Amino acid sequence: MINTYVVDRRLNGKNKSAVNRKRFLERYKKHIKRAVNDAVNNRSITDMEHGESISIPGQDIREPVFGHGKGGKRNYVNPGNKEFVSGDMIEKPKGGEGQGGGNQASNSGEGMDEFTFNITQDEFLEFLFEDLELPNLVRKELKSMDDFVYRHAGFTNVGVPAKINVVRTLKNSHARRIALSGKARRRLKEVTALIDEEEQKDRSLRNEAYLEDLIIEKEKLHNKITRMPFIDDFDLRYNLSMKEPTPSNAAVMFCLMDVSGSMTQQTKDMAKRFFLLLYMFLRRNYEKIEVVFIRHHTSAKEVDEEEFFYSRETGGTIVSSALKKMQEIVDERYPASAWNIYAAQASDGDNWNDDSPICQKILERDLLPKVQYFSYIEITPRAHQALWQAYDEVRSRHPDAFAMEQIIDQADIFPVFRQLFQRKSS
């Protein structure tokens, strides 16, 4: 019998097991996702991406147990028995007399508190953005000389041992030995045949001197062939790899936020919370992603991350200014042939009535032909206005490239975010 032992030597922290923790997180995934979703709605913007404390009800962490069913015959061993002898019948336990079996508190029962544990920042973000992706992401033509792939480009006589091509080297070795020893092998075959022929003759007719010369020649030929190296430096061949530029799936996300006077502080906070979720999602899931921040009121301007989230500038409302600014930046820096272009716009829906048709025209004529996906969220509890109606017409004609949702209060932010960026089943 052979005993096999598997030893896990992966490095973990003191008193921790990465394998067991992963199994535990998978088992209580439902509770963790619920806690993560609640945390997103209750946290401040600056505390959005920290870890979280998770509580699991006691009844959900009980382990399954096996028990005997009713009926059948069983043999019991009762140590210290003073009441029964062999052959006695034992009554079944009467039901309803146990203590502590209910959920109510009692002076003699025992209970179990909720089990609480902490998840790390990475685990929090992993559960937060699970099953989300940028829609319609495709590989584009060469964006820059930064993206390369190494492809096989034949063989070379020089290289490092790690790149040696064994098959090609052995083929060259075999061909060299055949070419260099072909004449000797043919002569060896002839000499062997002559020796056999001479040895088959009667001793009186055999030419001993001639036979001895043949044997000596055979030995020389054999030594000549065997002294030939199995692999020579000339035989070595190495794989040759060439660096070729490849298409890139680099993407750019435009974040367009309305900061006009009609946007209350609460509305702005919800817009910032949505964009912060989007920003964390992009940074965590996509290595090559650029984010362009645009704030607008009557005019629009490109800003950095700090100014986008914390500037207090305000004014009137002309939504088309943000779309024109985005179009200008796309034309200057992000050609559609090389970039996956995305946009997310947040507003309260308030806009000059004459400007909403202009927004619709810019979207359909200039932006949607270039972008992969444009999402619009309207943060308002009021009835929709002209901007929503104009955008609704765009959505009806371009359902795959344009999406729009409404956010009424803070609890709607994360569900709407997931709805806009939910991974599509293939």
TrEMBL record:
Pfam families: DUF444 (PF04285). The keyword Coiled coil applies. Residues 181-208 form a coiled coil. The keyword Coiled coil applies. Residues 86-111 are annotated as: Disordered. Keywords: Coiled coil. NCBIfam families: PRK05325.1-2 (NF003707), PRK05325.1-3 (NF003708). PANTHER family: UPF0229 PROTEIN YEAH. Belongs to the UPF0229 family. This is UPF0229 protein BCF53_11091. It comes from Reinekea marinisedimentorum.
